[in-house]
Amino acid sequence: MPGLGRTFEPLARQAREEHWSHEEYLHEVLSVEETSRADSAVRMRLREARFPETKTLDTFDFAAAEGVSAPQITELARGDWIGRSENVFFAGPIGTGKTHLAIALGVQAARQRRRVLFHRAADLVRTLLEARDQRELGRLHRRLHSVDLLIVDEIGFVPFDRPGGELLFNLFTDRYQRRSLILTTNLAFSEWVKVFAGDEKLTTALLDRLAHHATVITTKGKSYRMRRKEEAPDKTPDKNPSTLPKPGRRA
Ligand code: ADP
Ligand code: MG
Known about the structure:
This protein is α/β, with parallel strands linked by helices. It has eleven helices and five strands. The relative contact order is 0.13.
């Protein structure tokens, strides 16, 4: 009981000085313990999720995001859809905040003590292929199934060969109506067949299922970073050639 261990003495001193009843003191030390356990559970969930970096909703600039509605994301952040094993798709061009939002929703889910796991699509497919080769696919599936929210980022960046596509298909099918997914993609759904080795039947079957209980958010517009640079060029002097020191003017 780490929280209790840390605080029972100072709280006892305070209790004596302020004449708390035994019950009040007990309530106080146990609440500290409860909070400390909740905090460490959340820290563990966040670690287990393996986010490549931490992105949260309070650093997301909704005014600068086309196609993204703040109320909708706020609603999704409550995580009720995860309880219903539904899915969220982020589709749109590069740099429009898809990964940021996917991680931010994952962080929220972890704060609600849900099990979350983040994977880039290419890495996930590689992991699946390796597990298959080592005859450990069953175990990997069980492990992934224990995760309430699986985030698969960057579908479409790298096309999969047929075995890879099929393994991903099986994984997604496995989760269908039982566990939640967040997928991000730079592709239009009509282009997904390219990712799945040109297998039209497989792709149609998959999209059919995935889209059935899904919220699709289509991000639009220019890359956020590019736009920031255009709007405030002198805020990024290191990358802006016009503000670089002139050649020959060495310090
Ligand atoms: P995508 O996954 O769509 O390619 P990212 O989510 O990786 O884009 O965004 C690229 C960078 O720009 C990230 O550092 C992200 O935090 C930032 N970014 C994108 N959109 C926004 C936004 N609306 N508000 C704040 N930061 C943003
Ligand atoms: Mg991304």
